[in-house]
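> call design_seq(struct)
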């Protein structure tokens, strides 16, 4: 009895290669990255694949090429609406490029993030790290082992997409100062958050330039339930204005202010960060920093795939900065005269 024919089993890359008279590696390139094979050869391979009813298998392709065509997208809290935009952006860009998205939630834990990246390493070709909780040193070391792009981190030598919320914080301070506020408190996020420190430094820098006071309370979890404790801490400072680490914390603070009879913005103005879904539905609608979150996800994927698709290219040092802007809503208003220092300009106050 003769050898098993391709009719008795699914066709393989080797079958397509034999039928088209080329190497198996050429077939793999032609089917996964057509631009790297000349048109005549590619057409012959595609015709042979059709005649043999060849169906690509991602696991078999990974074994022969070392590529899974899967990208890990790592977020610190999947329940945070900030990441919804990141995930939408990465999913759209990956789907268009023929890749699968592997979503990983690290639950705000740097240890879990590090462990998951290594545990799942054989399951993906590269990773997008959104607001990583790893230290700069550890993130740089991981980038030497795994092709990755970081979002909202800027470690030296690591490709990254930076959403410029520090500039937005400076806009927020200018907005509050223009309304007569002379002391601005920052409700801080997690100590492990790199963005948290950048936002605080931007607030201090802007407050100093305007000659107003700044102080900090926290840290607080970047979630709505932490808003009650944050609101109480802000009330204790006697400040007339607050900038919160993110919108979830700010929305939780609004609820607590209502419970305690603090009028927003009559008694205290509040600014959030990220402009998540729902920030304009709360009472009052939240003044916040609007960021191109979905665009950040798409940009990160484009940067990563450009590196993966050119194996001969040197390690990318690319960095992209995306601007943010202040969106003014009803949660900010003039400082209450009884709780603010008189404005120096005549006719104001």
């Amino acid at each position: 009895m003769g050898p098993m024919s391709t009719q008795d089993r699914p066709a393989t890359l080797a079958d397509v290669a034999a039928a088209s008279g080329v190497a198996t590696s050429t077939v793999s390139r032609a089917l996964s990255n057509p631009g790297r094979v000349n048109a005549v050869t590619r057409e012959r391979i595609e015709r042979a694949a059709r005649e043999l009813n060849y169906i690509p298998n991602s696991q078999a392709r990974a074994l022969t090429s070392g590529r899974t065509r899967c990208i890990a997208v790592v977020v610190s809290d999947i329940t945070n609406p900030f990441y919804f935009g990141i995930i939408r952006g990465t999913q759209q860009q990956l789907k268009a490029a023929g890749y699968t998205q592997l979503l990983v939630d690290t639950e705000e834990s740097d240890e879990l993030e590090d462990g998951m990246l290594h545990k799942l390493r054989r399951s993906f070709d590269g990773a997008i790290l959104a607001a990583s909780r790893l230290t700069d040193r550890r993130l740089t070391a991981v980038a030497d082992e795994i092709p990755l792009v970081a979002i909202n981190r800027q470690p030296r030598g690591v490709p990254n997409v930076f959403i410029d919320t520090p500039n937005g914080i400076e806009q927020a301070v200018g907005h509050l100062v223009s309304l007569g506020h002379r002391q601005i408190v920052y409700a801080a996020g997690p100590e492990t958050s790199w963005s948290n420190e950048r936002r605080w430094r931007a607030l201090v820098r802007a407050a100093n330039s305007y000659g107003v006071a700044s102080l900090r309370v926290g840290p607080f979890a970047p979630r709505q339930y932490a808003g009650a404790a944050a609101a109480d801490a802000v009330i204790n400072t006697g400040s007339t204005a607050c900038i919160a680490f993110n919108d979830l914390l700010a929305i939780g603070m609004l609820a607590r202010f209502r419970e305690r009879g603090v009028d927003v913005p009559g008694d205290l103005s509040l600014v959030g960060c990220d402009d998540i879904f729902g920030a304009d539905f709360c009472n009052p609608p939240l003044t916040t920093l609007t960021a191109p979150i979905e665009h950040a996800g798409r940009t990160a994927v484009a940067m990563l795939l450009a590196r993966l698709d050119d194996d001969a290219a040197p390690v990318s040092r690319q960095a992209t900065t995306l601007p943010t802007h202040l969106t003014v809503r009803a949660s900010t208003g003039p400082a209450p005269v009884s709780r603010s220092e008189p404005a120096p300009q005549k006719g104001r106050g």
